[in-house]
Specification:
Number of helices: 9
Helix content: 40-55%
CATH topology: TIM Barrel
Number of strands: 8
Order of helices and strands: HEHEHEHEHEHEHEHEH
CATH class: Alpha Beta
Radius of gyration: 17 Å
CATH superfamily: Alanine racemase
Structural class: alpha/beta
Distance between the termini: 34 Å
Strand content: 15-25%
Bound molecules: pyridoxal-5'-phosphate
Strand order of the largest sheet: 7-6-5-4-3-2-1-8
CATH architecture: Alpha-Beta Barrel
Number of domains: 1
C-alpha cells in the first residue's frame, strides 16, 4: 500500500476505535489538513476517498482550489483570518473554522452573497491556557454567536478550538469538554441555528476530542507526514 493510503487507513481506524470506545453513535468526519503539502498529495488522498480538506494559508489554498476544482472537494479554511481577505474566503471556501470577531463575520456575510448556500461558520474558542492567542473567550462567546446568527449568508455550525498540546489524556480532554458544554448552551440559546459541529482534535489528541464529542477532527501530520517550518506570513 502506498504511504498515504496506509496513513489514511490508520487514522480512519483510530477514529473508528475512538467512536466505539466512547460510544459515539453520530458521525466523526476526518478533515485532512493539507497546508504546505503539494497538490499531488491531495490527489492521492482524494484517491483514498477523502473529500474534506483544510488549509491555513490563503494564497497557497487558492492555487490548490483552482487546480483541483473539478474534484468535488469541500474546502475548509482553518488559518488566521485577515479582514481584507474575507472576500476571497467567502468566495472560494465552504467552511471557515476560525471566526473570532464580529467584524469578520459581517464581512464574510456581505461577501458571500445570497445566491449561494450560506457559508458554514465555526467560532474559534480560546480556553485559558491555550498557546494560540486567537479565539473568543467563553465569556464573550454568547454575544458573538448572537451576532453571527443574524447574518443570512452564514450558517452558524458550531465551535472550533486548538488547546495547548499535552500528552496526558485527561488534560487533553478538559478543554474539549468545556467547548462541548459551550456548544450545548448555544444550542439552547439559538435553536434555529444548525449548531451541530465541534471542530476539535488533531494528530496527537483526536481520541480525547472524540471522547468529548468532536464531529470534525483536523488531522495533518498523521496523514501527510511532518511539515517543514514555514517562512512566510499566513
Ligand atoms: C496544522 C493544523 C492542524 C493539523 O495539525 P497536526 O498536528 O499536523 O495534525 C489542525 N488544526 C489547525 C488549526 C492547524 O493549523
Amino acid at each position: 500500500m502506498p504511504q498515504i493510503a496506509a496513513n489514511f487507513a490508520q487514522v480512519r481506524q483510530r477514529i473508528e476505535d475512538a467512536r466505539k470506545r466512547f460510544n459515539r453513535s453520530d458521525s466523526v468526519e476526518l478533515l485532512a489538513v493539507s497546508k504546505t503539502k503539494p497538490v499531488s498529495l491531495i490527489e492521492q488522498a482524494w484517491q483514498c476517498g477523502q473529500r474534506h480538506f483544510g488549509e491555513n494559508y490563503l494564497q497557497e489554498a487558492l492555487e490548490k482550489i483552482e487546480q483541483l476544482k473539478d474534484k468535488g472537494i469541500h474546502w475548509h479554511f482553518i488559518g488566521s483570518i485577515q479582514s481584507n481577505k474575507t472576500g476571497l474566503l467567502a468566495q472560494h471556501f465552504d467552511w471557515v473554522h476560525c471566526v473570532d470577531r464580529a467584524k469578520i463575520a459581517h464581512r464574510l456575510n456581505d461577501a458571500r452573497g445570497g445566491e449561494r448556500s450560506p457559508l458554514n461558520i465555526c467560532l474559534q474558542v480560546n480556553i485559558s491556557g491555550e498557546t494560540s492567542k486567537a479565539g473568543v473567550s467563553l465569556d464573550e462567546l454568547p454575544q458573538l454567536a448572537n451576532e453571527v446568527a443574524r447574518y443570512p449568508n452564514l450558517a452558524l455550525r458550531g465551535l472550533m478550538t486548538i488547546p495547548a498540546s499535552s500528552d496526558d489524556f485527561s488534560t487533553q480532554q478538559r478543554p474539549f469538554a468545556q467547548v462541548a458544554d459551550a456548544l450545548k448552551t448555544l444550542q439552547q440559546q439559538l435553536p434555529e441555528q444548525p449548531l451541530d459541529t465541534l471542530s476539535m482534535g488533531m494528530s496527537n489528541d483526536l481520541e480525547a476530542a472524540i471522547a468529548q464529542g468532536a464531529t470534525f477532527v483536523r488531522v495533518g501530520t498523521a496523514l501527510f507526514g511532518t511539515r517543514a517550518p514555514i517562512e512566510r506570513t499566513p
